[in-house]
Amino acid sequence: MKALVKTGKGRESVKLLDIPIPEPKADEVLIKVMACGICGTDVHIMNDAYAHTIPVTLGHEFTGTVVKAGEAVTELKVGDQVVALSAQRSCGSCKYCQMGDYVHCTKKQSIGIDLGGGMAEYIVTTAQRTFKVPDSFVGRDILAITEPLACCVRAVLEKSRIHAGDVVLVAGPGVIGLLCMQLAKLCGAFVIVTGTPVDAERLKLAKSLGADVVNDDPARVLELVTKYAPYGADYVIECSGAAPSLCSALECVRKEGSLTQVGMYGKNVEIPMDTIVRKELKVTAGFSQAMSTWELALKLIGQNVLALEELVSVRMPLEQWEQAFDLFDKKTENKIFLIP
Ligand SMILES: [Zn+2]
Ligand SMILES: [Zn+2]
After folding, report:
1. 83's torsion region: left (phi>0), alpha (psi -120 to 50) or beta?
2. Among 9, 277, 280, 338, which residue's beta carbon has the most beta carbons within 10 A?
3. pLDDT for 270-319, tens place per residue?
């Protein structure tokens, strides 16, 4: 089968190879991949900026159809369309595994990082950590976006406590920001999405998907926030992973307000900690997902309360992976799907 494999060090070691179709173990299923999204983590792995195991097939944002099930699998059958949790293997007995928070297990192994990923014709996953998609979505590849959605569900619905009437500032209108915006709207918040002039198109999309106010001028964000929330935003959800955006977020949040960090910086950044102390801020973060997160994300998908299709701007054949990653680097597109 075709698979996009990182074979050694650096981006030049990433190659589209012909490798054997994996064989599912007793508790696993073999899935024919319909689509796999490109994520910043894939780029970090390519550039050796994220710990991973070599060789590895890239990609963790996928959906596909079960074509073979191991003899011990009872919850899934051939023909089911599925999505899968990233942390596929872990010790199973530590404090975090017992809670379903596999991502925090020191022995965890994740698809596209340590285990074969979704940028391939087939992938093998553990049945117990693989989920059937809602019936109304069967046959549609859009659910390759479930994994990034689950990351946002973790941050906004499981780790934050946003209430109706809260003024929420979402910093960074990428796919993650646009999903977090929609989830904050579901909580009943008044949501302001902020970016920079290069985000003009994305901010237009944010407005059309339900953001109350959008802003493309970083110098004006504080003025804008205080127009709607005189004391400052109740919540800031930082999705850009850019230090200036974080500093501005800390200015915009009200005293005793909350910051939820979603974006990753990929390096150490300078933070005005005294602002956090003086304002008595609550700081939380969302990283990856737990079992509970997938159940909630799939429930919301099934209820059809989220705009997902609008967030995918490009579908390209897996063979054109180089052009697709170049396009990703330009940061002008929303989600890019590779189709094997
Ligand atoms: Zn991702
Ligand atoms: Zn564990």
Report:
1. beta
2. 338
3. 999 999 999 999 999 999 999 999 999 999 999 999 999 999 999 999 99
Contact present, 102 and 291 (Cβ < 8 Å) = yes
Residue whose structure tokens are 């949501």:
191
* Cα(68) to centroid(ligand 1), Å: 26
Ligand nearest to the CA of 43: 1
Please tell me the distance between residue 289's alpha carbon and the centre of ligand 2 in angstroms.
Answer: 14
Q: Which ligand is nearest to the CA of 92?
A: 2
The pLDDT, as a whole number, for residue 67 is: 98
CA of 335 to the centre of ligand 1 (A): 11
Condensed to tens digits (0 to 9), the pLDDT of residues 216-226 reads: 999 999 999 99
Q: What is the pTM of this model?
A: 0.96
